[in-house]
Amino acid sequence: MGNLLYIVAVILIIAWAIGFFAFQVGWFIHLLIVIAIIAIVVKLIQGK
Questions:
Q1: Which of 3, 39, 40, 33 is nearest to 18 (CA)?
Q2: Residue 26: phi, psi to the nearest 5?
Q3: Longest pairwise C-alpha distance within the chain
Q4: DSSP labels, 17-37
Q5: Mind listing the pLDDT tens digit of every residue in the chain (48 residues)?
Q6: pLDDT for position 17
Q7: Are 16 and 32 in contact (CB under 8 A)?
Q8: pTM greater than the 0.70 cutoff
Q9: Which of 3, 6, 19, 21 could join 29 in a cystine, given CB atoms 3.0 to 4.6 angstroms apart?
Q10: Residue-wise over 17-48: b if at least 16 C-beta within 10 A, else e?
């Protein structure tokens, strides 16, 4: 489960970067980065 969470977080960060620099979608792109950061923090907390 931890690896899956990490993979999802990385995919969301990549999607955010592509969307932010290519499409300028607005609030949705920032929502993706917030979800990715939350996923990374949860993984770090569960890993210890």
A1: 33
A2: 110, -135
A3: 37
A4: HHHHHHT---HHHHHHHHHHH
A5: 567 878 888 888 888 777 767 766 667 767 777 888 888 888 888 875
A6: 78
A7: yes
A8: no
A9: 19
A10: eebeeeeeeeeebeebbeebeebbeebeeeee
Question: Quick one: tokens of 22?
Answer: 């290519």
- Provide the token pair at 35: 């979800």
The tokens describing 5, both together, are 């969470």
Q: Identify the pLDDT of residue 2.
A: 63
Phi first, then psi: what are they for 25, rounded to 5°? -70, -30
User: Which tokens belong to 10?
Assistant: 């990385």
Torsion, Cα of 33, 1, 3, 38 (10° steps)? 20
Write out the two tokens for 29. Answer: 């792109």
